[in-house]
C-alpha cells in the first residue's frame, strides 16, 4: 500500500484501456465527428464524481467548442427550482429528473449525448440515456462494465446505461471503483477518473483527426489565459449561441 503501488497498478490498467478500447474509441470518435459535422452539440451528463469527465469534455482548453455540460444543478440554475432541492443526496434517483434536465437543455436532433457513470445504474443516468434515445439522439456511454455487471439494475425498466448506448467506453475500473485492497476488507484509491479521462481525450483526438481528414478544422478552445484566447473563444461560440452554457465554475 503506497503511492508507487497505486501508480504501478493504475498505469497497468491505463495501458490495458489504451490497447483494448481501440475499436470502441474509434466508434465513439465517429459519433463525435458526425455530431460536429452536422453542427450538433455534444451534451455531456454525469452525477457525483462522473462530473469530472463532463468537465473534461465541455468547455475546456483543447476541447471541442460545441459541447454542453448538463448537471442536476440545472434544475436550480435554469429551471427555477428552490436551491434546497439540491440538499437531497438521493435526488439522482428520483424519477422525472432527467426528463426535466433534457427539457431545460432543449437539444437539437443532431446533438450527441455522452452519459457518464461508473456504475451505470442510477435512475437519473439510465433515464437520461433512455430519454435521449427516445428522442432520436445517439448515446455514448462511459462506464465500468465490471461494476455494472456486478450490481442489479435500479431503473424500473431493468436496463442499465451500457444496455442503452450506441457505443460503450469501458473505463476498466473494478466493482466499487477503488483499486488497492485493504487488509481485512475494503479498498482505497478510485480509478475511474484516470481511465475515463484517457478514454475521453482519446476520443476527442480521434474525432479531431476525422474532421481534419475531411478537410474541416475542428472548432477547438484555446486557453483563456493566453493573449487573445478569451476573445477567440467567444468568436467560436457565436455559432452555437443559446445552445451551450458557460457558467462560472
UniProtKB/TrEMBL annotation:
PROSITE patterns: SIS. Gene3D superfamilies: Glucose-6-phosphate isomerase like protein, domain 1. Residues 32-218 form the SIS domain. InterPro entries: RpiR-like_SIS, SIS_dom, SIS_dom_sf, SIS_GmhA/DiaA_subfam. One of its GO terms (biological process) is carbohydrate derivative metabolic process. GO terms for molecular function: carbohydrate derivative binding. NCBIfam families: PRK02947.1. This is Putative UPF0309 protein. The lineage of its organism: Bacteria, Bacillati, Actinomycetota, Actinomycetes, Kitasatosporales.
